Amino acid sequence: MERLGEVGEFGLNHIPAKNAACESGPEGSNPSLSAISTERSALGAAVDEELFLRYWIETLGCPKNHVDSEKLAGLLVSQGYLEAASPEEADLVVANTCAFIEAAREESIETVLELADRKRGVARLVVTGCMAERYGDELATALPEVDLVAGFGESLTAARSAPVALRTRSVPTFDLLNLPRPKSATPWAYVKIAEGCDRRCGFCAIPTFRGDQRSRSTAEILVEARALVEGGVRELVLIAQDLASWGHDRRRAGRGEAVEVLDEGGTQPLIELTATLSREVERVRLLYLYPSGLTSGLIETILATGVPYFDLSLQHASRPMLRAMRRWGDGDRFLERIATIRRSDANATFRSSFILGYPGETEDDQRELIDFVEAAQLDWAGFFTFSPEEGTPAIAMDRQVPHELALERLREISEIQDGITARRRDALVGSRQRLLIDAPGIGRSVRECPEIDGIVMVEHSLSVGSLVDCEIVASHGTDLEAVLV
Predict the structure, then answer these.
(1) Helices marked H in 254-325 — which ranges?
(2) What is the mean pLDDT of residues 2-26?
(3) Does the structure show a pLDDT above 50 at 260?
(4) Residue 219 host element (H or E)
(5) Which CATH entry fits the domain spanning 2-166: 3.40.50.1370, 3.40.50.12160, 3.30.70.100, 3.90.950.20?
(6) Which of the residue ranges 145-154, 288-297, 346-355, 441-450 would you say has the lowest mean pLDDT?
(7) Does domain 182-426 have CATH number 3.40.50.410?
């Protein structure tokens, strides 16, 4: 779009593939508020819906942003808003943006400009989320179409000032992490158990705008989880920037709830939290596990939940590359851990993501990553080219890899992984799987994470939210087909 050239301070000059650490899910979805009437009654709201202002939230980026949008939606409902059917019908239009890498920022800007064109003339346009937090001043200057730029915890309904309501950063008016949220529109839900990150990986700018790790307490998580389960959720998907380190910061701050996350030994609160939540709901799934935090105790706990799904944040297999990224491990250690898990449960499912073209990456490093992928036989994997980010060590590193070369390496390894994934899906034909029906005609076994992995196609007559036993009868690339047994 022509306006993009005016916001070069965001680094929006070209569109590389997304970085592995972004862990993005599908973008542009809108939280559904099926429990609006109940919530309005609790507020003593009038019955006449014409009296209410309406909102629309457009969400970009990872599952963590989608949780934030649901909580913002719940906050707006508590303030008397109703969800609009489209941006054109809304009085308040909100863009919850992503700022992790250049491609995400460009998409965020494009979305804001599109919403500015689509909204009614009297409607207010608000930009929030990571991009608002990271580039608030620049956004306010570059986008006069926007009525308000609101960082984390800042009101979406603050009074307008001209030409844009650029607000001085102050103490947040609400805690986004612990806001109540509306009833889930699906039989599964993400639960964000921590915000920010204490690690300082070479490629990642998240700590510069999300801050250090801030773990929620067990009690806070349980309140949210139980409300979701009471609303019909049958699978909870735990998310955080560094899930395995949940609780570590609470001990440092003297709030109890122990932990040191070590390769072996010590205590790890995520173990007890996972076990506790597994008693509350049929399925508990863990996303974004840093490999050094995958202790023997955590492995045993995950297997005991009946959802043997391991989403490991590996990023590479070459030891020199991982050290340059300020990451733990190497291909041999990763393979040993994967083999240990498979010995305990042959049905264990593995997902990971990898960065191609990190500064200094050589052909030998690429060969080592290919060898690892062929040996690991992961069920799912994502590959992303390196994106240089302001505020990270990697942006100033020598031996930057040309983007075209990074893309070539990505295509090479993606083709290999596509074949592995297809063969692993083919191998499931003839097996029996217990499926959670997410939507008419769409189910998932424990092998598929919602919104990220493939699906299982089933009869449309199966009830949404039900758990049913099916036989896999066909494989279609990443997706499967099943019949009731």
Answers:
(1) 269-278, 296-304, 319-324
(2) 36
(3) no
(4) helix 218-230
(5) 3.40.50.12160
(6) 145-154
(7) no
